[in-house]
Every structure is written in C-alpha cells, then in structure tokens.
Design a protein that fits this description.
single chain; 109 residues; mainly alpha; 6 helices
Length: 109
C-alpha cells in the first residue's frame, strides 16, 4: 500500500519536491540520468525521501544542499518521510528474517 502511495506522489508531486531541492547535487544529476519515465520518477522520489530521512548523512556526503534542507517545507517533507521510513523498516525486517533463516540455522521444525 505504501508503495502505491509513493508511486502516486511520484507521478503527481515530484516537481514540487524538486523545486525546493534545486541546489542539491543528487537531485540535479538524477533528473538528467533517470529521465521523466515512470520508473525514473519513482526512483527519484525514493531518493529524495531517503535524503530527507537521513538528512545529516546526505548533507555530509554532498548529496543534499544544507540550505535546501533547512528551507524545505515540513508539510511537504511529511508526505514522503513517514512512508519512506516504513518502507525502510519493512526492508530491514525482510533482510533480517532472511539472514536468520540462512546464516543462523533458523526455521527448524
């Protein structure tokens, strides 16, 4: 359900996110590299969500401009931060459960 929501936001509101992040290096380069197709738009939105979730890390790596991060509207950020966090948590759970079964001899009946 969250993936469908993020896809809808990518199709409808991606330009609003990119306008507020116009000085960020990752956003500028991915707009050119990923294009404006369906998969490219979803990928770009998920990258924006991960940059906003891990704001200090993204600023330190040079992906996100500090001024862009400071001036980004909170209401717009909430649209992708919480769903993005839930997607990241679900992914980590899937990886940990898979590692438990494979590397720690789990799932024995």
């Amino acid at each position: 359900m969250l993936v469908l929501y993020m896809t809808y936001i990518a199709i409808k509101d991606l330009e609003r996110f990119e306008v507020h992040l116009s000085r960020s290096r990752l956003i500028i380069s991915n707009r050119v590299l990923m294009g404006d197709g369906f998969i490219g738009r979803v990928y770009r939105l998920l990258q924006i969500a991960s940059c906003l979730i891990l704001k200090d890390f993204s600023i330190g790596k040079g992906h996100l401009d500090p001024e862009d991060a400071k001036e980004f509207p909170a209401a717009l950020a909430r649209k992708v931060i919480w769903p993005g966090r839930f997607i990241m948590i679900a992914f980590c759970i899937v990886v940990l459960v898979g590692a438990y079964g494979k590397y720690f001899n789990g799932y024995k009946a």
